[in-house]
Design brief:
This protein is α/β, with parallel strands linked by helices. The chain has two domains: about 50 residues, no CATH class; about 190 residues, Vaccinia Virus protein VP39 (Rossmann fold, 3-Layer(aba) Sandwich), CATH 3.40.50.150. It has twelve helices and nine strands. It has a seven-stranded mixed β-sheet, with helices on both faces. The chain has a two-stranded antiparallel ribbon with strand order 1-2. α6 packs parallel to α7. The protein binds S-adenosylmethionine. S-adenosylmethionine binds next to α7, β4 and α10.
Length: about 260
C-alpha cells in the first residue's frame, strides 16, 4: 500500500493519522504520495481506519496526541486535549504572573499540568481530578515525560487541598444539559464526567470561584477556560467574589474562551 492509497480515501482524519504514524507533515505526504508504507504502518493505519468508521475519535484511535510541545498518551480515561487549551497554557507561560505554585483543577490527561511543568521548570504544579482513571493517565504521562515538578492527587475540587497557590487554572466540565443532549455522537466517547457542567453549565465555575480566594496567595490569579457563551455570567461571579483585573481572551475563531482574574 502507498501513501496515495490513503490520500485517495479523502478522509482528513485518516491523513492526519498517517502523518502522525510516519512523523511527517501533511505536505510531505502529498509530495511523496508514491512512497510505499511499511507493513507496520499499513497495519496501524488500517486499524485506525476501522476505528474511525466505528465513530472513535482519531486521537483515541492513535493513542497519543501532541499538546503544545509535549506528546501525551490519550485514551478514553480522559478528555482529548483540545488545541484551544494550548492558548491559555501559552498565556500562562509567557505571563509575568508569579507562578511558583500552580494548581490545575480537573487535570484530565494532564495536558495543562504537564505542559506547564515542562515549560516552567521552576514552578511546582499540582493537578487534581476526581476520576481515578484520569489520574492514572496523568501519572503515566508524567512518567513518560520524566517530569519531577508536577504531582497529581485525587480531589473533589478543593476537598483534599490544604496549600495556597499563585495560579489556579481550570478547564472544568462546562457543557449545559441542553447542549449535552445535542452533542455530536463522537463526543460521547469521551467521559461524561469531563464534559457535563450541570443544568446551566456553570456548576464548576460557581464552586471554584466560591472557594478560590482561600487557596490563592495574595495577588494570585484564577484562570479559566470557558464555553463560548459563558463569559458574562462568569465575569459577574468573579466580580461578586471581589476578583479584580479581569481579562477576557478569545480563541482563534473569535469565541470568548478564557478568563483571567486576580485575587482582590
Ligand atoms: C474538561 S476536562 C479537562 C481536562 C484537561 N484539564 C484538559 O484541559 O484537557 C474536566 C476534568 O475535570 C474532572 N472533574 C470533574 N468533576 C470534578 C471534580 N468535582 N473535582 C475535580 N475534577 C473534576 C473530570 O474528570 C475531567 O478530567
Amino acid at each position: 500500500m502507498k501513501v496515495k492509497d490513503i490520500i485517495n480515501k479523502a478522509n482528513d482524519d485518516l491523513i492526519i493519522g498517517l502523518s502522525y504514524l510516519m512523523d511527517k507533515s501533511k505536505s510531505y505526504l502529498y509530495l511523496n504520495s508514491h512512497e510505499e508504507l511499511t507493513s507496520d504502518i499499513e497495519e496501524k493505519i488500517l486499524s485506525i481506519e476501522e476505528d474511525l468508521n466505528n465513530g472513535i475519535p482519531l486521537q483515541y484511535a492513535l493513542g497519543y496526541w501532541e499538546f503544545l510541545n509535549i506528546s501525551l498518551i490519550v485514551d478514553k480515561r480522559a478528555l482529548i486535549p483540545r488545541f484551544e487549551t494550548e492558548i491559555i497554557v501559552d498565556y500562562i507561560i509567557k505571563s509575568d504572573f508569579k507562578k511558583d505554585k500552580i494548581l490545575d483543577i480537573g487535570a484530565g490527561s494532564g495536558a495543562i499540568s504537564l505542559s506547564l511543568s515542562k515549560n516552567l521548570p521552576q514552578s511546582q504544579v499540582l493537578g487534581v481530578d476526581i476520576s481515578d482513571e484520569a489520574l492514572s493517565l496523568c501519572n503515566e504521562n508524567k512518567n513518560n515525560l520524566n517530569l519531577t515538578n508536577v504531582n497529581f492527587i485525587k480531589s473533589d475540587l478543593f476537598d483534599n487541598i490544604s496549600d495556597k497557590f499563585d495560579i489556579i487554572v481550570s478547564n472544568p466540565p462546562y457543557i449545559n444539559e441542553k447542549d449535552y443532549l445535542a452533542l455530536d455522537k463522537k463526543l460521547y466517547h469521551e467521559p461524561k464526567l469531563a464534559l457535563y457542567g450541570g443544568k446551566d453549565g456553570l456548576y464548576f465555575y460557581k464552586k471554584i470561584i466560591d472557594q478560590a480566594n482561600d487557596y490563592l496567595n495574595d495577588q494570585g490569579h484564577l484562570i479559566f477556560e470557558i464555553g463560548y457563551d459563558q463569559k458574562d455570567p462568569i465575569n459577574e461571579l468573579l466580580v461578586k467574589s471581589d476578583f479584580k483585573n479581569i481579562i477576557n481572551l478569545k480563541d482563534f475563531n473569535g469565541f470568548d474562551r478564557f478568563i483571567i482574574a486576580q485575587k482582590g
